[in-house]
Amino acid sequence: MKSVEWPGVLLARKSFNPEYVAARDRLADVAKRGDWPAMFAILDGAIESFTPGANDWRVGGASWYSPLHQVAWLGAPTDVAQGLVDRGAWRTLREASGHSPLDLATSRGHDHLREVLAPTFSQPIGADDLAAMSERLAELVNSAAREVVDEGTNIRHLDVTGIAGSGASVWFPIPGMYGGFAVELYRNRLHVESWSRVIGGSGRAYVITPTRTTLVDEGFV
Q: Which residues of 16-30 are buried (b: 16+ CB within 10 A; e: fewer)?
């Protein structure tokens, strides 16, 4: 199972390591201009101290375009789109206006990308159930973030559809918490563990279904 980091707490650029910001900037720049070899080199860790993820967007950027959104917008070859999917890019990921890569490709007339960008799901879960689990996960994240993140900081919450479409496990770090949330989908349920690395006994484990969030263990970290 692939592991993906979700940088969903939207802090100011100055709050991050400058090399981390620069790496994500370079990824956004080369994807925007369609320099696919450079994009893959960055994602494969060939030229960066920090290796961005395939779903990352520019730190502080308003559009939330990932590399796969740029591929869809520009109409890149199908092997480029497939290369991003193979590196963990989520075909269900929506940018700030709510458009998926497939939406963008369709609107731009890039029909050759329709098949490779069409979402597939390894587990049969309805859209309403995915949305309900996403909301419950957001409630958990918000409860932790209120304790350590400055009031007014925006959070781009994790859409469980991305996990369902990729089969990935996700690490959602919460700056200031020195920890975060590990999330994976198993048998149509979300399994979530949270902890802080500096607070003994902080570990909590939850199972989330569309109808309830259940604490199943605590104190293990």
A: beeebbebbbbbbeb
pLDDT at 1: 57
Is residue 104 helix, strand or coil? helix
Residue ranges in the chain modelled with pLDDT below 70 = 1, 48
Q: Is 158 helix (H, G, I), strand (E, B) or coil?
A: coil
Residue 194 confidence (pLDDT): 94
pTM of the full predicted structure? 0.92
Domain extent, residue 208, equals 127-218
68, 86, 117: which is the final residue of a domain?
117
Does residue 112 sit in the same domain as residue 60? yes
Residues 50 and 101 in one domain: yes
Task: Please identify which residue in the block is written with the tokens 């959602």.
Answer: 172
β-partners of residue 116 are: none
